[in-house]
Each structure stands twice: as structure tokens, then as C-alpha cells.
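Hi R.,

Here's the input for the flavin-adenine dinucleotide complex you asked about:
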Amino acid sequence: MNTNNYNKIIVIGGGYGGIKAVATLAKDKINQVTLIDKNAYHFMQTDVYELIANEKDFAKVSVDLFTYCSGFDGNVSFYKQEVCNIDFNNKKVITDTQRLSYDYLVIAVGARTKFVKSIKGLKEYAHGVKALHRAMYFKQKFEMSLFKKVQENGITCKPLSIVVAGAGLSGVEIAAQMASFAKDFYSSNNFLCRKLNIMLVSSSKQILKGMDDVLVKKSQKRLLDLGVVIKTQTRVVSLIKESVTLSSGEIIPMDFMIFAGGIEPNGLIYNLDLEKNERGFLTTNDALHVSRHKEVFAIGDCATLYNNGKFIAPTADVAEQMGELCSQNIMNLIYNKALKKHNIKSRGVLIALGRRYAVGKVVNFHLYGYFAYLMKKIIEKVYFMQLDRHSKKGCRKIFEE
Ligand SMILES: Cc1cc2nc3c(=O)[nH]c(=O)nc-3n(C[C@H](O)[C@H](O)[C@H](O)COP(=O)(O)OP(=O)(O)OC[C@H]3O[C@@H](n4cnc5c(N)ncnc54)[C@H](O)[C@@H]3O)c2cc1C
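And here is the predicted structure with flavin-adenine dinucleotide in place:
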């Protein structure tokens, strides 16, 4: 414990893992928690599909971190700063503006889209969706492209062509959502130009690699029903403004491309002198702390997690479970108790596949259609409401001061 009789705990990153850690640690008034994020908001990446479908605006897929932190009982503060490095020996977090000392530290900085350098033109011509500004830019680009087609000359217009590279959870959801949005858009108006080609490109044998077979088949069928063209066992090798070249040699015309082909650790992780795996992600032990520093924990997408030797795919659900466990272990360190080993597994997956349709598997039960969609909506709503309640409370406090 700190000599001031409280514990200075810094959480870097207010994503799914970091927010959960903050909420759990704040329960004990002996903790003084500081959340640092380079952005002023928590971005709900799991709800991007609703942003694309115009069912939510950006305010409904984000939560203000300053008001959120102010909603606690005085023991949580927020700094909007970018962390550049960490001095582990002197226990200091180095941000773009200051150095902050800690007793315990949680690294929860997520990951970023891996714009693979070997794919020529990728960074220049493709869009990612892992950051809110990128997701918004892409959504506007999609709408603008539909609008441009409306202005073209009726039935002779060229189709709008969109390529989604990467057929994991996010690529599949985005392709389905765009196809379904366009379908609704065209059926609710009488514009003559109604040609949209969406192609989903997967380097694996199938989409949703590693997921349950039933989910893969159902998702594939839904995508085909929505008119999405699926190309498997091929990769994007280069892009220019108007086309994409695949490893099969095919050249696909495109108006724009979404790249959901993988993630990499973000800048801070590269700077840290900590153990990492071959892909550069942080490695932790079973209690989620990093090697050599028992007081430093790494959670969420920036860390790699194994359960009985099996790799656990990084998801919001897993990040939250890690956030909760690392906070419990910080409390165990504070109260001199044994650290708890993790037994984290995915609690389920729900994949949104266009308006009011989803597929999923929750605790070994398969769910399809409207019911799965409803379940996904309820989970998202409950999550948002919890954060929103704190944020509104924080807002009231700030304006009453
Ligand atoms: C389109 C899409 C759909 C998805 N759908 C699902 C789904 O349905 N279910 C599911 O479970 N998962 C889903 N995921 C995955 C899920 O969003 C991630 O696994 C999750 O966001 C990881 O949480 P995290 O806390 O590790 O990181 P993030 O949520 O990415 O948060 C990291 C935070 O760290 C901050 N940060 C980064 N670097 C710094 C720095 N140097 N200094 C300060 N702050 C920094 C960032 O601003 C950010 O706020 C989806 C992802 C995408 C892109």
C-alpha cells in the first residue's frame, strides 16, 4: 500500500478491458484509479454494424470517458493523453505531456488494424473500422457512394463495388450489414441505379476461420442470400484506386475496400521492454501479470491468452473477463492474498448478419434469426446502459459544481 494510505492504480486504455478494470477497482475506496486514454471516449466496436446501418449515430456507439469517470464516488479520474512509454523500474507512465507514478498498472491498449506492408496500396486505398473516426469515415464514404450512383444515368450506371478483405467476425458483419442496408435502401426508393457488388475475400478455406461449423454454414448462407460474393483461399496482393488484385490473378473493380484482415499491437506495445509473442503481443502468466513485474497486468487485445494450451481469440467478452480478473488480482496483491489463475473462455458469440438477423452460440446453444439478433441487442443495451448511467451521473456532478 502507498504511504498516503491509498493505492495509485493506473489503467491505460478505456476499451472493454480497461473500463471493466476501472469499474471493479473503483469499488474499493482504498484505490485511487486513473484512467488514461488517447481518445476522450470509449468506442463500442461491437456495435459498428449498427453505425453502418444508420440505426445508431456515433454518440450511441461511444461513451464520454471524462463524464464516465466522474460518475464514480471521487476515486476515479480521467486523463485524455497518449501513453508513449512506461518506466517499469521507477513505476512511471510517460504520456505525451507528463510522467505519472503508479503502485499498480493495467495495460489495456487494444490493437489496431494491421495494414500489411507487403500489400501495395493498402494503407492508401483501404479503410479500417477499429477506430471510431475510421468507422465514421467509412460509413460516410458508403453513403456517399450510394448517393453518387443515384446521380448516375439510370439503368446504364456502373455498379457500386465494395471489397471486404478478411472474413473474420468483423469482416463478415460489415459485408452482411452493407448488403442488407443497400437492399432496404433500394427497396424503399425508386432510383434506377441499383447495382451493388459486395465481395468478401478470405485467405482461408472458409469464412469465420476457427468458429463453430454450424455458425459458418448459416453465416455463409445468409451472406449468399444477401447477394455477397464470397472468395475463399485467395488474398489481396495489391490495390490501386479503382481495383484490387487477388493472389489468384483476378482483378476486381472497386469503389472502396474495407480491410479487416488482421490486427497488430499498437505503437505503445512496440516501445515496451516486456516479453512478447512472435506477433508482438504481450505475454502474461496465468494471473495476467507480465513477467518481471508482478504489479503490472496486461489485458484485452494487446495481450495473448491461452487456456490449457489453447489460444483464446481476442474479443470484447474476453477483454472484459480479463479486466475483472486482473482487478481482483490487484486487490489480492494489496491484501497479501494468493493470486487467482484465470480460466477464461469465450462465453459465446453473436454475429449480426443484416437487419434483425443474427447467428450465434451461447453456452453451447445455437441461436439463429430474430431471436439471436434480439439477444445481441439486449446484451449491447445492458452494456451501454451501465456505462451511460455512470456517465449521466458524472455529467450532473460536473454541471452542478
Ligand atoms: C467491427 C468489429 C466488430 C466486433 N464485434 C465483436 C463482437 O460482436 N463480440 C466481441 O466480443 N468482440 C467483437 N469485436 C472485437 C472487440 O471489439 C475487441 O476484442 C475489443 O474491443 C478489445 O477490447 P480492449 O479493451 O482490449 O481494446 P479496445 O476496445 O480496442 O480499447 C483500447 C483502448 O486503448 C486506447 N489506447 C490505445 N493506445 C493508447 C495509448 N498509447 N495511450 C492511451 N490510450 C491508448 C484506445 O483509444 C482504446 O480506447 C469486434 C471488433 C470489430 C472491429
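One thing worth noting: The chain is about 35% helix and 25% strand.

Cheers,
M.
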